[in-house]
Specification:
single chain; 296 residues; alpha+beta; eight-stranded antiparallel β-sheet; three-stranded antiparallel β-sheet; 10 helices; disordered N terminus
């Protein structure tokens, strides 16, 4: 009878107890001790700055399993390890991975190279964005010369004789639209122009839009990886010749042998800076020979 009375009392207390006490009542002393290290979903959400909905989505996607889950009531309890899991998921999301990609990243052991390439691309994008932020901090009029490596690229190219900077911008836009219609544009690279004329003042331009390796057509042109000197010019396109003149003077003064025309790589312009031409950023680069007398 005493035993039966104890059971009845436990059942009565369990029926009207809070979720935390339910864990303690049914789990005994070990569960009571363990419950001190468990967190409710609301607590986890507040601590990590995520929404309850996000946590439930992680569970639905198979990315997260609560330490304790009451199937009858739906109450969930999480551990410190669960918090670490959520933070890792959020970090990968911040890098640009979708939840489906994160699930494959954790559980697909047969295609690791694909995920490695994807993360490398994301890192390269992050590096470019960091670099752009550094450039934005630079003051207008800074014509300091830097040494860089221009990457190998396959491009969709068209050549034009342009009347001025405005006409050149129109021709570059037209080339961009034509490249877009091929369905082969590269999303991670910047469009650029190459001054094909012998004079830096001429606007004999080769407009280049990076495309994928499998693009085939008469507009296809390949650019090898090469060393270059460059100036990050900040300002309207009409003033780019200022950077070209400075770079030309630097090359002549240091007896450096140029191996190609001036590249104008458009890092930030109208799409993201609008009419604020003073904030446009163009990388003006000149390929050069590593064996030049005044090589940096």
């Amino acid at each position: 009878l005493d035993c039966m009375g104890l059971i009845i009392r436990i059942i009565f207390r369990q029926k009207f107890a809070s979720p935390e006490k339910k864990l303690i009542l049914w789990g005994g002393f070990s569960m009571k001790k363990q419950s001190e290290h468990l967190f409710k979903i609301g607590e986890i959400a507040k601590i990590l700055g995520v929404t309850r909905k996000a946590i439930l989505v992680y569970e639905e996607m198979g990315l997260l399993t609560p330490a304790v889950k009451d199937e009858a009531s739906g109450y969930r309890y999480y551990t410190a390890d669960n918090m670490t899991q959520i933070r890792a998921i959020r970090s990968l999301q911040t890098l640009g991975l979708s939840l489906a990609e994160i699930r494959e990243y954790y559980y697909d052991t047969e295609n690791l190279d694909r995920y490695l390439d994807r993360l490398m691309d994301l890192r390269a994008t992050l590096d470019r964005n960091i670099h752009l932020l550094q450039l934005r901090a630079a003051k207008p009029g800074d014509l300091s010369v830097h040494r860089v490596r221009l990457p190998r690229q396959v491009c969709f190219c068209r050549r034009y004789q342009c009347t001025d900077a405005k006409d050149a911008a129109i021709k570059l836009r037209d080339t961009y639209i034509a490249a877009a219609r091929t369905g082969k544009m590269s999303m991670g690279s910047r469009m650029f122009t190459v001054r094909a004329g012998s004079s830096c003042k001429e606007l004999d331009l080769l407009c280049c839009i990076p495309v994928s390796e499998d693009f085939v057509g008469e507009e296809r042109m390949e650019f090898a990886e090469m060393s270059a000197l460059c100036i990050y010019y900040r300002g309207a396109y009409e003033g780019i010749n200022t950077a070209i003149d400075a770079l030309q003077a630097y090359v002549q003064e240091n007896k450096i042998q140029a191996t190609g025309g001036f590249h104008c790589i458009y890092l930030e312009g109208p799409p993201n800076r609008g009419d604020h031409t003073e904030d446009y950023i163009t990388q003006v680069a000149l390929p050069f020979s590593e064996n030049s007398e005044g090589c940096l």
